[in-house]
């Protein structure tokens, strides 16, 4: 695991954006794994700016998002579909047919999970997966205790995760209780992973990730077993490193 320490959130977003743009330029038909949440917002804004300046085209890019709430329509402002359109996908030249997010509003959620993994395989696997990390070490919506071998599946969200995500809703009661997430096994099959960690509230989390044991109690710890992981972390997130 390689760690790149940066000054602040702005530098983190810039570094992450340059990293991704170099992949998009290098690979003929790049497959990117995308995350939602606050952490990649600055990165997405940079990726949009680069497109608007005419420096990059995303015509050949295929994307797979990590997760989506269940029982929420893709047009709902709280859905991850909506988030991705608002922050990135609605502003660039990626063809709609190359955009993939789990569909949490279908009847047969189990079939949706199977189909999602198959689609990733058919696309030739993810070239670069972008990840954020939850304070409890979750990646995607894989909460502590999730088997490292898990494939895309339905999860019951941790109370701490619902609480953390309630900032996007008018009250915690409105935060869905379930979601579809790429499994840890699915994430680990990505050819390369870029993990972004920002802010003081993630300082203990980053310390545990870098210095703790590999354990299903702390899902992100599995990243130690991946051969190509880069972590970009700002000074606030690095403030408690042992
Ligand atoms: C989002 C996701 C989550 C977030 C994590 C951190 O698609 O999969 O694992 O990356 O909850 O969220 P933020 O960035 O809001 O702190």
From TrEMBL:
Gene name per UniProt: nagB
TM annotation in the entry: none
Protein's UniProt name:
Glucosamine-6-phosphate deaminase
Q: What does this protein do?
A: Catalyzes the reversible isomerization-deamination of glucosamine 6-phosphate (GlcN6P) to form fructose 6-phosphate (Fru6P) and ammonium ion.
Q: Where is the Glucosamine/galactosamine-6-phosphate isomerase domain?
A: 8-229
UniProt keyword terms in alphabetical order: Carbohydrate metabolism, Hydrolase
This protein's species is: Ureibacillus manganicus DSM 26584
Give the enzyme's main class according to its UniProt record, as a single word.
hydrolase
As one GO molecular function, the record gives: glucosamine-6-phosphate deaminase activity
